[in-house]
């Protein structure tokens, strides 16, 4: 079984913000594969289903971004899964232009507090990631204000295209074709 976790912040005030692109991708995956992400467990909204013949648990941690590891760690522990082989995390990246994807098999937190929390609770930096570019913070802006802000109309369109590509990448990754996803989308 794969856990596909999209990072974001709970509550409607954060919908469609740069920091919630992970939630947006989970919503799109849920729609595409007819998976209801409504069950509240492990400090997350969860839904189980099948993607490309593989059983998956889609998760939207409800702990707020900086504590995402509490939820992901609880899921890994409950299902006795290894993050290195059973976890895909989808999240925002300010070092990428809006709409660009970067797929990685492992890495540091790179300053992302949600990823830092997951690394801490999972006990490893080795888990699959789909990073979605939200653009660089403008000079003089506070980082929190930027990532909690909404996209311009043009950037939102780019982001939504990226959400579709992220869904395609996740489908390849659960089939064991991460290298192909990297070649296709990086």
How would you describe this structure to a colleague?
This protein is of the alpha/beta class and 186 residues long. It has one domain (2-185): Peptidyl-tRNA hydrolase (Rossmann fold, 3-Layer(aba) Sandwich), CATH 3.40.50. The protein is built from seven helices and seven strands; from the N terminus they run βαβββααββαβααα. It has helices spanning 21-32, 68-79, 83-86, 113-122, 143-147, 153-174, 178-185, and strands spanning 2-6, 39-41, 44-51, 54-61, 87-93, 101-104, 128-133. The chain has a seven-stranded mixed sheet, with helices on both faces. Strand 2 and strand 3 (44-51) form a beta hairpin. Helix 1 (21-32) crosses helix 6 (153-174), helix 2 runs parallel beside helix 4 and helix 6 (153-174) runs antiparallel to helix 7. The model has no long low-confidence stretch (mean pLDDT 96).
């Amino acid at each position: 079984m794969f856990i596909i976790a999209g990072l974001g912040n709970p509550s409607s005030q954060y919908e469609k913000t740069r920091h919630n692109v992970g939630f947006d991708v989970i919503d799109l995956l849920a729609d595409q594969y007819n998976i209801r992400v409504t069950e509240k467990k492990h400090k997350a909204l969860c839904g189980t289903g099948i993607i490309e013949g593989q059983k998956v648990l889609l998760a939207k941690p409800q702990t707020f971004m900086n504590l995402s590891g509490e939820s992901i760690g609880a899921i890994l522990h409950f299902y006795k899964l290894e993050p290195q082989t059973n976890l895909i995390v989808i999240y925002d990246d300010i070092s990428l232009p809006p709409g660009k994807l970067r797929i990685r098999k492992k890495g540091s937190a790179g300053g992302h507090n949600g990823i830092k929390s997951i690394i801490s609770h999972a006990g490893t930096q080795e888990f699959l990631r789909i990073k979605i570019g939200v653009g660089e913070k403008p000079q003089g802006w506070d980082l929190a204000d930027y990532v909690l802000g909404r996209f311009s109309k043009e950037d939102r369109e780019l982001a939504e295209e990226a959400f579709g590509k992220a869904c395609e990448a996740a489908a390849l990754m659960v089939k064991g074709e991460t290298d192909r996803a990297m070649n296709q989308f990086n």
